[in-house]
Amino acid sequence: MSPPQLVIYGAGGHGHVVADAARAEWTILGFLDDDAAHCSADTSDGPQVFPTHHVRAEPGRWREHHFALGVGDNGLREECYRLLKALGLRLVTIVHPSAIVSPSAQLGEGCVVLPRAVVNAGAQVGEGVIINSGAIIEHDCRVERFAHISPGVVLGGGASVGERAHVGLSACVLPKVHVGADARVGAGAVVVTPVLERLTVVGVPARPLVRHAPQPQRIS
pLDDT grade, residue 220 (50/70/90)? Predict the structure, then answer.
């Protein structure tokens, strides 16, 4: 029996990384994307790219398939999640075969755990989260909905990351330290004190750079 079919929302670079992670368990039917560059690409030797209006117009025809989130931008990924849920479509969680996830960890619907990432005992990962390649989520961490934990990040035991926050490449968050919702942690930063919502921090130790407006929500 062939593996079940999967459609990935997002045909850019991150979407293809998610496709690679999924291939051990799924047949990739295609991608959803409205970017003209992706839709016009030659797909004769690979999965098709479908514009999203195909799904919006006739969601019933797509309910036999499963969907994964392949969008890197946190706010846009949340919109995609909400759209798929509103249409009654089935979202799955993707875990690369080389990733290590503790049996006592919790992974939310629509999240992805990429190659050689580690999610340790008691960790809680929310819906639509990206745990990128080689990231380490230590015991009892909490990563809330639609956050992005970049490649090489280390979250110390009991650390927490708020909704839509982005922790940059190879950054470290010390144990029990909180990164607020919509915050951004620069690449290589070491976070030793709590980070406020919508704040950008950089450096060692991490220091504030700028506070930005919350991301608008466009799809209910």
Answer: very low
